């Protein structure tokens, strides 16, 4: 008698049916979310620009609330700072800061460093056509994130730079470190002839110093700092003199670190709960003013015309010999420079320098618009400002540029550049997708 075999096709089909039911049960919530997500997308597509901005500000507010762990006073304080900061809605923070709560891990910090540094260097290589093997000197400056191996080693590894390259990694030197790097590159180029020096300035926000506490003085950096980076190529090769955009004329550095208040006005420390962050002193603007005064006293004789030097000298003699209460003479630096790139550290910094140096709104336009579009990008902000002037078609042959930066320590550094040729309006760069909208009116308070 023939043995009756089981119906394999039926059993296989039943197994597939069971798997299908199991998959459906495991992913039922995902399937239910699909129509909800589609509905949300349709609603977002119907929104206008102003409504999208309101939505973004609302999300930003939610992130601040989550980051402050329900501390209403901290939330209100940060919202007041943001409303008066002069920052626009297009500034960027790294991916790790979008998590709730933020996840400033070392791995995320390295990923941010790679994105910022490599994109800036790639853009520079493409514009100049230089081969990475031709670079003789490499200088990286990043204040807060200092891993091992260093960021300069990361760049050497990525671009397979020569084994005899002279590499430097500057950290902890604050927002003025970009001009310190330029000064270091200049000194090295004076010793090493026929060389290229690559300077890369950036600040990595995804670092262990990202503050998660409630101390107001330590919450300020969280509100103002944003992603950004810049790469600069310097050369002392004779053949590059014709194609170089600028000539470095002077670098003047002022360091007030001998004074205790100045030394501690931008200070990394732990709060009462042991949370690490950067403390910005309430005396910061006063100390910055003193550092600026010392710096312009040093750079003035190098750049000012004879008439301004004489007026300054006569006022100084009068104060010493006749009346010490005479108001000191502030030289007219508009006679020495056509363009001013003031570190976009915050609205108060730009306001104070505009007032003290008696500059017009157009003179500080590049700084204000950089702060609005990109936020405080630390040492790289000066190069966003110079790029703004170029894209606006204002940089002409023979124009002189004054870069002014402030940094922890406390330091005030200046660089004077001369434009070698009229700069054609660039078709790429950080401003390419938004320059037509600038300059914009920036209200004193933007209600969030």
UniProtKB/TrEMBL annotation:
Transmembrane regions listed in the UniProt entry: 20-42
Pathway membership: Lipid metabolism; fatty acid biosynthesis
Reaction catalysis annotation: a very-long-chain acyl-CoA + malonyl-CoA + H(+) = a very-long-chain 3-oxoacyl-CoA + CO2 + CoA
EC number(s) recorded for this UniProt protein: 2.3.1.-
Stored InterPro entries: 3-ktacl-CoA_syn, ACP_syn_III_C, FAE1_typ3_polyketide_synth, Thiolase-like
Boundaries of every FAE domain copy: 62-321
Assigned protein family: Belongs to the thiolase-like superfamily. Chalcone/stilbene synthases family.
Localization, UniProt: Membrane
Keywords attached to this entry: Acyltransferase, Membrane, Transferase, Transmembrane, Transmembrane helix
Gene3D superfamilies: 3.40.47.10
Pfam family, one: FAE1_CUT1_RppA
Keyword Isomerase: no
Keyword Transmembrane helix: yes
Name of the protein described by the UniProt record: 3-ketoacyl-CoA synthase
GO CC annotations, alphabetized: membrane
Origin species: Sesamum calycinum
Domain of life, per lineage: Eukaryota
Enzyme class: transferase
Domain Beta-ketoacyl-[acyl-carrier-protein] synthase III C-terminal: 338-418
Molecular function per GO: fatty acid elongase activity
GO BP terms in the entry: fatty acid biosynthetic process
Active site: 175, 255, 339, 343, 372, 376
Primary localization class, coarse: membrane
Signal peptide: none
PANTHER family in the record: 3-KETOACYL-COA SYNTHASE
